[in-house]
């Protein structure tokens, strides 16, 4: 059910990020990727108790994946640009470790917020909640988590757009030119 998201990540990181990074640089791609992924999360806010996978969840997963793949490829390339070839593995591993730590902390925080929303919604009801009320409370929890996640991705987009410097863009273009001239792929070492 979730396979479309990783497939979208693969497509966007290799096709969109790989092709556009040398032309526009990581600043634009992180900004755009963050906004695209946030849009996908906002699409999930349309989910209601009658929603279908194909009509609501699938399109959102594809959009989230396209945005995240663009961010991932740009982040790894930016973090490893200018690093000595001998240190490229360490730089890439550091980026991946930070992604895992950030993902773990984010998941823990969002799960806690989700559970609190569900608990609060159920506590607001008088008597034993019906199955429908329970389902609505869970859906409300998801909506809050999706909304917060979208907000975080907008902040990621803004941070990338404001904090990634022009030097990173210039180095990415130089690495791409060098890789093209030698026939190697610039991200192969990453």
UniProtKB/TrEMBL annotation:
<feature type="transmembrane region" description="Helical">
    <location>
        <begin position="28"/>
        <end position="45"/>
    </location>
</feature>
<feature type="transmembrane region" description="Helical">
    <location>
        <begin position="57"/>
        <end position="76"/>
    </location>
</feature>
<dbReference type="GO" id="GO:0005886">
    <property type="term" value="C:plasma membrane"/>
</dbReference>
<protein>
    <recommendedName>
        <fullName>Major facilitator superfamily (MFS) profile domain-containing protein</fullName>
    </recommendedName>
</protein>
<keyword id="KW-1133">Transmembrane helix</keyword>
<dbReference type="GO" id="GO:0022857">
    <property type="term" value="F:transmembrane transporter activity"/>
</dbReference>
<dbReference type="InterPro" id="IPR011701">
    <property type="entry name" value="MFS"/>
</dbReference>
<dbReference type="Pfam" id="PF07690">
    <property type="entry name" value="MFS_1"/>
</dbReference>
<dbReference type="InterPro" id="IPR020846">
    <property type="entry name" value="MFS_dom"/>
</dbReference>
<keyword id="KW-0813">Transport</keyword>
<feature type="domain" description="Major facilitator superfamily (MFS) profile">
    <location>
        <begin position="1"/>
        <end position="168"/>
    </location>
</feature>
<dbReference type="InterPro" id="IPR036259">
    <property type="entry name" value="MFS_trans_sf"/>
</dbReference>
<keyword id="KW-0812">Transmembrane</keyword>
<keyword id="KW-1003">Cell membrane</keyword>
<keyword id="KW-0472">Membrane</keyword>
<feature type="transmembrane region" description="Helical">
    <location>
        <begin position="142"/>
        <end position="164"/>
    </location>
</feature>
């Amino acid at each position: 059910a979730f396979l479309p998201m990783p497939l979208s990540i693969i497509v966007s990181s290799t096709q969109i990020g790989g092709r556009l990074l040398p032309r526009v640089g990581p600043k634009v791609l992180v900004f755009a990727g963050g906004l695209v992924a946030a849009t996908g999360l906002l699409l999930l806010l349309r989910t209601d108790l009658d929603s279908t996978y194909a009509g609501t969840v699938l399109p959102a997963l594809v959009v989230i994946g396209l945005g995240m793949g663009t961010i991932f490829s740009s982040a790894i390339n930016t973090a490893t640009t200018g690093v000595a070839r001998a240190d490229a593995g360490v730089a890439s591993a550091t980026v991946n470790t930070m992604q895992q730590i950030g993902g773990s902390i984010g998941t823990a925080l969002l799960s806690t917020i989700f559970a609190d929303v569900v608990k609060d919604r159920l506590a607001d009801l008088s008597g034993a909640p019906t199955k429908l009320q329970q389902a609505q409370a869970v859906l409300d929890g998801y909506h809050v988590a999706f909304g917060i996640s979208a907000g975080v991705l907008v902040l990621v987009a803004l941070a990338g757009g404001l904090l990634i410097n022009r030097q990173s863009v210039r180095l990415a273009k130089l690495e791409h030119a060098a890789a093209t001239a030698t026939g190697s792929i610039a991200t192969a070492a990453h």
